[in-house]
């Protein structure tokens, strides 16, 4: 074919300029900093549980883990017996 191309097809789109990825960081920091200050003033103080509440919570978690593991084991044992 006798078609001549205006540019080399191996280098596509040379005439489109690259986008610059310049970010102005100076003002972004100020906005983030001020939003952290405003949000921190609105937050309530974190409430630490009493020792009794913490012990009850730990007891509940460990009890539920124990019984859930036991239930899985009995289910697996039943399945082995049936097969």
Please describe what this structure looks like.
With 83 residues, the chain is mainly alpha-helical. It has helices spanning 25-42, 51-82. The longest helix is centred in the last third of the chain and has 32 residues, at 51-82. It starts with 24 loop residues before the first helix and ends with a helix.
Low-confidence stretches: none
Q: How helix-rich are the residues, as a percent range?
A: 55-70%
State the major sheet. Answer: none
Q: What's the helix count?
A: 2
N-to-C series of helices and strands: HH
- What spatial form do the alpha-carbon principal axes imply? flat
Helix/strand structural class: mainly alpha
Organism: Cricetulus griseus
Protein name: Retrovirus-related Pol polyprotein LINE-1
Question: What does this entry show, briefly?
Answer:
The protein has 83 residues and is mainly alpha-helical. The protein is built from two helices and no strands. The protein is flat, with a radius of gyration of 33 Å.
Please outline the helices and strands.
Blueprint: H1 25-42, H2 51-82
Protein name: Retrovirus-related Pol polyprotein LINE-1
Task: List the main descriptive attributes of the protein structure presented here.
single chain; 83 residues; 2 helices; Retrovirus-related Pol polyprotein LINE-1
């Amino acid at each position: 074919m006798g078609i001549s191309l205006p540019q080399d097809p191996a280098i596509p789109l040379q005439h489109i300029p690259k986008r610059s990825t310049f970010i102005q960081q100076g003002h972004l920091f100020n906005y983030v900093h001020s939003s952290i200050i405003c949000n921190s003033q609105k937050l309530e103080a974190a409430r630490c549980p009493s020792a009794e509440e913490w012990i009850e919570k730990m007891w509940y978690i460990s009890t539920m883990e124990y019984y859930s593991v036991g239930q899985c084991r009995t289910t697996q044992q039943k399945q082995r017996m049936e097969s």
